[in-house]
Design brief:
mainly alpha; 6 helices; elongated
């Protein structure tokens, strides 16, 4: 087997695996179970190590940093939203549990879960229903904001991935 054949096979393998990572990363931006941007970034790295793309170190550091920041903010923003709208620890925990339970109910559950969980958590804490709904709304806003951040970053990474792959 020639060295060029092995290299071509490896490049195709890296490109296919990278494509899978990009697609899964995009899905993971919408599903709380999968860390979307880190998986998308892994796709960029896989393509970088093939002959199809050679991203600059500056590009890799910039998007690696953005990926880490968005991954951290994804956990912080819903908590911030719940607290900003008057929620307590119970509301925050309720929103987190709501996300996990919501996974079993498809897209509607993923959207409604954090809201309902925060409301239930606040009611269990002893807050009035109007205060509980306000905290639930804050959790929902935080969840949507986090999802949008992840989706935007994953779409940008997908753009750069396919731009390089098609140009190759």
């Amino acid at each position: 087997m020639s060295n060029s054949y092995v290299q071509l096979t490896m490049d195709i393998f890296l490109a296919v695996l990278g494509t899978i990572c990009i697609v899964v990363g995009l899905l993971g931006s919408l599903l709380p179970v999968l860390p979307g941007p880190p998986i998308s970034y892994a796709g960029i790295l896989l393509l970088h190590f093939s002959k199809y793309a050679q991203y600059s170190p500056r590009f890799l550091i910039l998007f690696g940093s953005l990926t880490a920041i968005v991954a951290v903010l994804d956990y912080v923003v819903p908590v911030w939203g719940t607290k900003k709208f008057g929620g307590s620890k119970y509301g925050t925990w309720g929103a987190t549990i709501g996300v996990l339970i919501g996974l079993f109910f498809g897209p509607f559950g993923i959207i409604a879960g954090p809201f309902l969980g925060a409301v239930v958590g606040e009611i269990l804490y002893g807050k009035k229903s109007s205060e509980a709904f306000r905290a639930g709304f804050g959790s929902f806003i935080g969840f949507v904001t986090g999802t949008l951040m992840k989706l935007v970053l994953s779409v940008i990474l997908a753009f750069y991935f396919f731009k390089e792959l098609i140009a190759a």
